[in-house]
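Translate structure to sequence.
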C-alpha cells in the first residue's frame, strides 16, 4: 500500500506603502510638547501635506497618510490511497484601507520652532 501526501500553502502577503512611517505609535514616540523641533518632525515624517499660519504667526502642519493593505492566500492539498483520491483547494483575497491624520501646532521659543500641541486620528476599514 502506498500513501502519499503533499500540501502547498502560500503565506499571506501584505502590500502597503513602505514609505509611510506615520503611525499612531510613531506619533506618540516622536512628538513631545515644547521639546520636538520642526526639523525633527520633518526628519521623521517628511514634508507636511498642508501648512497654515494664524494671526500670531504660529504654524500648523497637517499630515494625512493613506495606505491600502492587501492580503492574498491560497491552500491546496492532495492525498491518495490506492484507487481512492481526494483533493481540496481554497483561496482568498482581502483588502483594507487605513488612514491617519495628524495636526501639529508650532510655537517659536527662543528662536526655535517647537511642537506646542498635536492631535491625531486614525481609522481602518
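Result:
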Amino acid at each position: 500500500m502506498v500513501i502519499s501526501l503533499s500540501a502547498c500553502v502560500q503565506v499571506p502577503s501584505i502590500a502597503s506603502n513602505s514609505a509611510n512611517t506615520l503611525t499612531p505609535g510613531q506619533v506618540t514616540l516622536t512628538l513631545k510638547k515644547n521639546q520636538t523641533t520642526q526639523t525633527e518632525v520633518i526628519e521623521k515624517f517628511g514634508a507636511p501635506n498642508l501648512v497654515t499660519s494664524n494671526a500670531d504667526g504660529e504654524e500648523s502642519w497637517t499630515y494625512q497618510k493613506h495606505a491600502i493593505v492587501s492580503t492574498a492566500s491560497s491552500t491546496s492539498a492532495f492525498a491518495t490511497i490506492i484507487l481512492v483520491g481526494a483533493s481540496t483547494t481554497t483561496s482568498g483575497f482581502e483588502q483594507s484601507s487605513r488612514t491617519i491624520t495628524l495636526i501639529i501646532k508650532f510655537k517659536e521659543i527662543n528662536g526655535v520652532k517647537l511642537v506646542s500641541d498635536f492631535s491625531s486620528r486614525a481609522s481602518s476599514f
